[in-house]
Design a protein that fits this description.
The protein has 644 residues and is mainly α. It contains 19 helices and two strands. A hairpin with a 6-residue loop joins strand 1 and strand 2.
């Protein structure tokens, strides 16, 4: 009973930490939006950039610090129950609830937040910009406030809880797989995965001064460079930092049981270092490839912008093709990282590579939160009718933030793939131990009929999930469009240059809130109950097929959807920067309207369905790990139906 109650406690702690970090991030973002607007009224770029950047840093460092502190304190408390190194496998298995708690909250934060923000955004764009031609964030549009609130809900709280879940799960997976290291190297060696994340916080802290003090932003051109330098410098500095940490905390050689088979591996700190560094460099590579496909500084997005000359249909075709094409290199990078890390340190190496992906999490979150802060600062400037130069400045800050947010999404998807693979490895190890090698003693046989059948079903899950979340945004957006149009019809003076009437903002906020609370339940329930019912009715062989199928399909779909959405968004921004007598005609033209349609379709692609697929693969895997003993206890792992 002890292990079950400890898992329940760690679940509640994980859920609480995820909620607290999301709440803190939203609080900081709300205070910082207006401060960034005020700073943008001053001369120069340094003040307004630093204000938004530091707002992101509060969220980034607070989330990483809280997550790590809570996890380590929980480990120390649980250690009083399991003082002997040979029992630390039970300690680490009790900790898996921490990752599950973070992931469950992330599921509802990501999906609910995504539906909230995109219902408002799509509704505001369709009626405001496309039909009536009023600018974005214009206070005459009733959906404007809901749109700005949604940026905080989806992009700050949702992204924060998602990445917190990745951090918690990757650490828990590495601890479960590497729990036997404690027998050789004592406590310090076993908690090496936590130490890597701790080292990452200090590296990110040192590198943050590059953006604010050493090389501050002095012009518009410096903004994107400053954010990109953050990601590159933290990755480069992590390499020596992890090397010293590994040699200090790990014994010169340590033994680890293989995830497949009964052989024991003899590993060195250098091998562990290489696995973490491969993850960090792989993450940066995926991030930079994502930037190439989503920034209007490069050819792919400019091609999408030029496709708008022949209307919205060609824009759609080009954008979808770009998304599919953008998955090629990231998938190859992931495959290489998985192969070499597994070759070096077995499944423990894959878990360490996942932690490497997230080693500069504090910086990644800083950049992610920076974007919505600048976006809302621009909204405040528009609503307060400040000088147009203020809006231009916040838009320039936000454009760089959009590109770097796309890089952040690349990191998140790559890390989620490795995390779910590591969790799957921990699940296989757990079942193998529980059955004394009768199940998965020589790995998972994908040609078993039941396993292969569920492999195909697992591949369908991400598509079903994406369909449900996209339709939810569509339904809520339609309701929002009707409400906004109703207000314009009943109060025609709202569209005057200086209206005497005030829109009913509350009605639009209520639509987004109700839609997000109602519509997030079915997709969330599907992801939570599918592995549970599969394990109980069909057994552990079916679960293994389900997890592998969902992982493979989720990675491809998440990358293509996120990048298509990012490309459509930045193609629109590229057209808006052009002058009316240029080839692309600029803002307000038919070409621009075609780009706005693409951006509107891309909104749920990049901010609802795409990023939420990260949680699909992670949550299914961590649930299976937590309930592994339950699955095995049901008819010795064959499930109630006992199909062979």
């Amino acid at each position: 009973m002890t292990r079950g109650s400890l898992t329940a406690i760690s679940f509640l702690l994980g859920a609480f930490t995820s909620m607290a970090s999301g709440y803190l991030g939203m609080k900081v973002a709300v205070y910082s939006n207006v401060r960034t607007t005020i700073a943008a009224q001053k001369q120069g770029w340094t003040d307004c950039f630093n204000t938004a950047f530091r707002a992101g840093a509060v969220m980034g460092f607070a989330l990483c610090g809280m997550g790590m502190l809570m996890l380590y304190i929980t480990m120390l408390v649980f250690r009083s129950q399991y003082p002997s190194p040979k029992d630390w496998i039970l300690l680490t298995e009790s900790l898996t609830g921490y990752g599950l708690g973070g992931s469950v909250i992330a599921m509802f934060g990501r999906v609910g937040g995504g539906i909230y923000t995109k219902a408002a955004d799509v509704g505001a764009d369709l009626v405001g910009k496309v039909v009536h031609g009023i600018p974005e964030d214009d206070p005459r549009n009733p959906a404007t406030i809901a749109d700005n609130v949604g940026d905080n809900v989806g992009d700050v709280a949702g992204m924060g809880s998602d990445l917190f879940g990745s951090f918690a799960e990757s650490t828990c997976a590495a601890l479960v797989i590497g729990s036997s290291i404690g027998a050789d190297g004592d406590w310090d060696a076993m908690i090496f995965p936590v130490i890597v994340s701790a080292v990452g916080i200090f590296v990110c802290l040192i590198c943050s001064f590059i953006a604010t003090h050493i090389k501050p932003v002095k012009s518009e051109a410096d903004v994107e460079t400053a954010l990109k330098v953050q990601l590159i410098s933290t990755t480069v500095l992590m390499v020596p930092a992890v090397y010293f940490a590994a040699h200090h905390f790990l014994p010169s050689t340590f033994e680890l049981e293989s995830a497949v088979g009964s052989k024991t591996l003899s590993l060195t700190p250098m091998q562990a270092t290489i696995c973490v560094c491969m993850g960090a460099i792989g993450g940066l590579t995926i991030g930079l490839i994502t930037e190439y496909y989503t920034s209007h500084s490069y050819q792919p997005v400019r091609e999408v912008a030029h496709s708008c000359k022949t209307g919205a249909a060609t824009n759609m075709i080009y954008g979808i093709a770009l998304g599919f094409k953008s998955a090629i290199i990231p998938v190859i990078v992931l495959a290489l990282v998985i192969y070499f890390s597994f070759d070096l340190c077995d499944m423990y190496g894959v878990a360490l590579a996942a932690i490497g992906f997230l080693s500069n999490l504090a910086t990644g979150l800083t950049i992610d939160v920076y974007g919505p802060v600048c976006d809302n600062a621009g909204g405040i400037a528009e609503m307060a009718e400040l000088h147009p130069g203020v809006r231009e400045k916040t838009d320039a800050l936000d454009a760089a933030g959009n590109t770097t947010a796309a890089i952040g999404k690349g990191f998140a998807i790559g890390s989620a793939a490795l995390v779910s693979l590591a969790l799957f490895g921990a699940f296989v190890t757990r079942i193998s131990h529980a059955s004394d090698g009768k199940w998965f003693g020589n790995g998972v046989n994908m040609l078993e009929p039941l396993t292969f059948a569920f492999l195909i079903i697992g591949g369908m899950i991400p598509f079903a999930f994406a369909a449900m979340t996209m339709k939810s945004v569509g339904l809520a957006a339609m309701e929002m469009v009707m409400e906004v149009q109703r207000q314009f019809d009943e109060k025609p003076h709202l569209l005057d240059e200086n209206p005497t009437e005030r829109p009913d903002y509350d009605a639009c906020i209520a639509i987004s809130t109700k839609a997000s609370l109602k519509e997030m339940v079915p997709p969330g329930a599907m992801v939570i109950f599918t592995p549970l019912l599969t394990g109980i009715f069909f057994g552990v062989g079916a679960v293994s097929g389900l997890l592998v199928g969902s992982l493979i399909a989720s990675v491809q779909l998440a990358i293509s959807m996120s990048n298509s959405g990012g490309a459509w968004d930045n193609a629109k921004k590229y057209i808006e920067k052009q002058s009316p007598d240029s080839e692309l005609k600029g803002k307000g033209s038919d070409i621009h309207k075609a780009a706005v349609v693409g951006d509107t379709v891309g909104d749920p692609f990049k901010d609802t369905s795409g990023p939420a697929l990260n949680i699909v693969m992670k949550l299914m895997a961590v649930l299976s790990l937590v309930f592994a003993d339950t699955f095995y206890a049901t008819n010795n792992g064959h499930g109630i139906l006992n199909l062979h």
